[in-house]
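Researcher: Here's a chain I'd like modeled. Treat it as a single chain, no partners, no ligands.
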Amino acid sequence: MRNSEIQSYRDLDAWRVSMDLSVLVYRAVKGLPDTERFELSAQMRRAGVSVPSNVAEGQACGEDGRYIHHLRIALGSLGELSTQTEIARRLAMLPTAVLADLEQTIARTGQVVHGLLRSRRRKRRLQVIGTALITTLAVLWMGAPLLG
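Model: Modeled as a single isolated chain. Structure tokens:
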């Protein structure tokens, strides 16, 4: 979706994909042993919910550095979820097919969120460069009569 078409976080592919991941996590952890209901299951659900929540919060903050900050938090939560999924794999707590689906969706979500982060960083750099250029030109213009 093009930037001009983005009205809210709901228009972002990163939010949509990460919402799908959250739903998948909630479904997957139902298969964990009861002993993990308040441990690994809760951790995975929190990490899964954190990803779309931070994408949404970042977009809602506007175009300043907080957007990038929240996208980095979303990526951190993806790292947590990936680690927790690996723990579930090593302890054979979930079926192989469920784990494979989680891992594939985590990877896809990471690609999309990384893409959004790159886009935001690039836009932020251009904003900073533009502001510096305008400031420099204003100083030169204001100082021009003094040089003569």
